[in-house]
Amino acid sequence: MAAIENIRSLSRAQSRPEHHSPEFRRPLTTKLHLYEALYTLNRGFEATMLGLHRLAELGVFQGKGLDDYKVAVELTRAEANEELAATLQEYEEDDSAYWDRRRHEREKQLQDPDDVFFAARDRKQEIKEQIKTLQQGLARQSAGKRRGRSRKKRRK
Q1: How far apart are CA 10 and CA 83, in angstroms?
Q2: Scanning 29, 57, 80, 155, which has the fewest C-beta atoms within 10 Å of its C-beta?
């Protein structure tokens, strides 16, 4: 349980607001230590379960006592894994955002300055097509109104 408390305190210390600035990046070693701690923790729970099973084979546990211990161990494991997974998820999201920004920065560095003009030309063409579509819609709408007026005149 000391390992869980150490990870919790590490998580709390590193989830302060200043750590969510765009320039901040947690050290890779910290993330690796968290994954290693998760593995070690689960290995310990598995060893505990094997120990309970061996004790049951030796006849130490009678009745449902063993089942109660198994449920308690597995519940503790699930809760610890849930908390650690949430911390790891946070680390991974931060890491993904960091590397996404780096990729965008790199793409900007490699981008041809003339690409801006090509993008502007393409956007201008898109706008022309949108205007044309809107004008066609307005023409259909006004033609429909004219037909409606002529029908009303015939009825009178």
Answers
A1: 13
A2: 155
Show the DSSP H helices in the chain as ranges.
2-14, 28-57, 65-110, 115-155
DSSP state of 21: S
Number of neighbouring beta carbons within 10 Å of residue 37: 19
Lookup: tokens for 83: 């908390």
Q: Where are the domains of the chain?
A: 2-111, 113-156
C-alpha count within 13 angstroms, C-beta hemisphere, residue 32: 3
pTM of the predicted model as reported, rounded to 2 decimal places: 0.53
Full pLDDT tens readout for the chain, 156 residues: 555 555 555 544 444 444 545 556 667 678 888 899 999 999 999 999 999 999 889 988 877 788 999 999 999 999 999 999 998 999 899 999 999 999 999 988 888 888 888 889 999 999 999 999 999 999 988 887 777 666 666 665
Compute the distance between CA of residue 97 and CA of residue 39 in angstroms, rounded to an integer. Answer: 25
Residue type at 136 in one-letter notation: Q
- Three-state DSSP class for 16? coil
Give how far the C-alpha of residue 36 lies from the chain's centroid of Cα atoms, to the nearest Å. 22
143 three-class SS? helix
